[in-house]
């Protein structure tokens, strides 16, 4: 299922999502690698097989093998980190913040693509997963690297639209089944 098929699968009540999906992917000003890495990482993070099956083939076409693997790696490591850091942040005992995490996350230091791209993908996945601490951390790294707010916002716009599309299509599939 291609992007157009994904848009046409959306029900009439989700017309705004259809328009936004076309806009955030079809009219994005992000460079191709940043765009399609964000799309792939978010498609994985939203946990919708419908969305992932629709968007992964084009992401694989648009990305180099290294970028394709790195985008999947961003989704994987942030799935772990977002739960860990969000939980540590939400607990009322600040002592958890002083403890060593003890979790392997070497991919963040050597993702196999430009660090800015990997950080952008990690930020977008963190938006899907709702981890404020990770969002702040990745946004600060991006801003220190000279990335403007519009680019950062573009990534979490993609995340928000893909999350909504996934939620809507999975709900429709459940109601039909």
UniProtKB/TrEMBL annotation:
InterPro entries the UniProt entry points to: AhpD, AhpD-like, AhpD_core, CMD-like
Enzyme class: oxidoreductase
Residues forming the catalytic site: 131, 134
Domain Carboxymuconolactone decarboxylase-like: 94-176
Molecular function GO labels: disulfide oxidoreductase activity; hydroperoxide reductase activity; peroxiredoxin activity
Name the record gives this protein: Alkyl hydroperoxide reductase AhpD
Superkingdom: Bacteria
Disulfide bond annotation, renumbered to this chain: 131-134
Gene Ontology BP, a term: response to oxidative stress
Family under the similarity heading: Belongs to the AhpD family.
Keywords: Antioxidant, Disulfide bond, Oxidoreductase, Peroxidase, Redox-active center
Entries under NCBIfam families matching the protein: ahpD (TIGR00777), ahpD_dom (TIGR00778)
Main function: Antioxidant protein with alkyl hydroperoxidase activity. Required for the reduction of the AhpC active site cysteine residues and for the regeneration of the AhpC enzyme activity.
